[in-house]
């Protein structure tokens, strides 16, 4: 049972109370500020006043609770006058969006930070594993939530077609925050041994070699598990164990040694055909279906190709005065049209930003789009695809007389 003083302090932080308009036995849900930033306390009080649920949730969780209560017929009651319906139903959302006063302070933490767009990020320890900064890299608006999730130590799964910029987004965030990164591609020969570690004999002695996962966890590196939808089940099982923030790794092969995560450790994965990308699975031969329980352990972001405007801007940033605004726009349109053809299955392969940049670089040297497309595009695709891409290019650029 809570003391009156505690209840009063709780009530001062009250953001909203929800009741059923007719069913008194449904009790009351109360949402209040928690004493931890970004987290909200929810309580369920029964009709007799007894509190039988008292828990702390994050914003996403709270939003889904609000939706559930609404579905169940609960309506908001004014915090000051709990028996009357709310005079200002949007006050709760306003508090939520503007944030309770003490929730704003996380940007002011001591320590070295770097700002990427609107988001202040802590700096990593540096070192040889920090990816190289790409000065032409554009942090599109889509990155903001992802950046905040990195700060909050969320597990992030980026899904999207090949070449949309999933891996490079993580690498460029790491480059800007001086954070070392390890990458492990599941669409290849990555074994559980590579991932977790193995015993080997060196100089007559049997020694344990950490795999990428314990290495990243111990040393506070970021780990990108690329193309996780190709990972073998044994690797997924190990991964699942560390998906909870603070989740520890049990090295069974090493006498059940426990590896605790360094505070800077972050875990990312990328995939082509999972979740809402499932409709394109036929384009990615061999990709596995990921079950919902696995997906639920990640924040899953869909990364699409850059918009034509953003991609034209990346071209201008990459090649500077060597490329005109109109050229950049035309090239971005060609790429966009090839992608549309890929999604219609008229083309077998995707047209990545990397391919566009490479073609442009060679075109600026040869001064001939068609010649430049040979080694950068046509040689990499079937004759049939090359024909279609050539016709898209000619349609935009025109043919020389
Ligand atoms: N926002 C961006 N700004 C600049 N270049 C980008 C951007 N997004 C992607 N690229 C370019 O596209 C290439 C392909 O991206 P990548 O991250 O490898 O794709 P994915 O991992 O989705 O297959 C990168 O090497 C980079 O040069
Ligand atoms: Mg990638």
Automatic annotation (TrEMBL):
Which residue ranges have biased composition labelled Polar residues?
1-13
The organism's place on the tree of life at top rank: Bacteria
* The keyword Transit peptide appears for this protein: no
Stretch list, region Disordered? 1-32, 77-110
**Per the record, where are the segments of Basic and acidic residues compositional bias?**
94-109
Instruction: Name a GO molecular-function annotation.
Output: ATP hydrolysis activity
Q: Which residues form the AAA+ ATPase domain?
A: 152-304
Keywords of this entry: ATP-binding, Nucleotide-binding
Instruction: Supply one GO BP term.
Output: ribosomal large subunit assembly
User: Which Gene3D superfamilies does the UniProt record give?
Assistant: P-loop containing nucleotide triphosphate hydrolases
Cellular component GO terms, alphabetical: preribosome, large subunit precursor
Q: Which SMART domains match?
A: AAA (SM00382)
InterPro entries in alphabetical order: AAA+_ATPase (IPR003593), ATPase_dyneun-rel_AAA (IPR011704), CbbQ_C (IPR013615), P-loop_NTPase (IPR027417)
Give the UniProt family note: Belongs to the CbbQ/NirQ/NorQ/GpvN family.
Q: What is this protein called?
A: AAA family ATPase
